[in-house]
């Protein structure tokens, strides 16, 4: 959950969650450092062995940048929507006019249909995201932008109606960084809508080519103290709740904006988010009864879980063990846990980092980037995130048994069940 658009040295990279924890409990912020040439080669070789289609040569990294393949039975398609909420001015740049959202829609598709694989992200967005993290290799924006996805553009939907999952990225982070999770859920029979919230990302490229940068990040940076920063970040979460209520109207209302909206079962809606997006999942559930279940992936509850709970709707908290175990420093999880009044699970992951639950580990390993504070491998990061988020939505939206949520599993020894 990065709080500033301005470029910093790598060692000074800060997330809003880590910043708050650092001031409360002395927790170190997330850092990343480029690997040595030999380390980069070893990483590429390991990826080639693990995936079968990654190059073992650092000089051929373009072919190595690929997202982990989805594991479900469905092929996946992807559409993009650009929506304008004429009922609200943008909260960060009112002079820009109405609130705007860019939405990626991943959905179960008919095998063999569609065009080319969907692009990962525009190069302008990749450049700004990498620069914010202090990663200046001139080749990397093009490589990241061209990362291979597993969804086809213009694919025909699979027959049937499917539950809808809303995804919200971390503060300052493009929606593309949740693509791997979106593709996995779509391959398992969900329609997935991932939102970029205007002026809340390092870069959001509009259909006309303009790139919006992170005015909300500047607003956080302008605050004189942590109380001010927390207040702005709470407004981010509640603002996103309004965004997703609008999005639900446009996807499930009488005149839907998406051409394949008939594939959505509006009676079964879940939401997950990373970092501030995880907080936004709870905020959206509090504001909109249509959302039946939520997941917070390593996000501080700047906007607290409401005192009266979430009307007994299920909620999963999945986070780092160092930052989000009971009493670890982020007391908002302890408070949120006490207020959650439905089926709930509090899981932490050993050796994970703030970005473990996104595409960052998979992309970073292929670029030869290491995070010494989060030694969990990209393969394990991907497997754990997919397994537990999918199990939770299968249980909550489909009524399927989810034994994975009953207690520790030998297949996932890194995952700890917290019962404060």
TrEMBL record:
It holds the Pfam family PAF-AH_p_II. This is Alpha/beta hydrolase. One of its GO terms (molecular function) is hydrolase activity. Residues 49-80 are annotated as: Disordered. Residues 1-28 form the signal peptide. The lineage of its organism: Bacteria, Bacillati, Actinomycetota, Actinomycetes, Kitasatosporales. The keyword DNA damage does not apply. PANTHER family: PLATELET-ACTIVATING FACTOR ACETYLHYDROLASE (PTHR10272). Keywords: Hydrolase, Lipid degradation, Lipid metabolism, Signal. It comes from Streptomyces filamentosus (Streptomyces roseosporus). The keyword Signal applies.
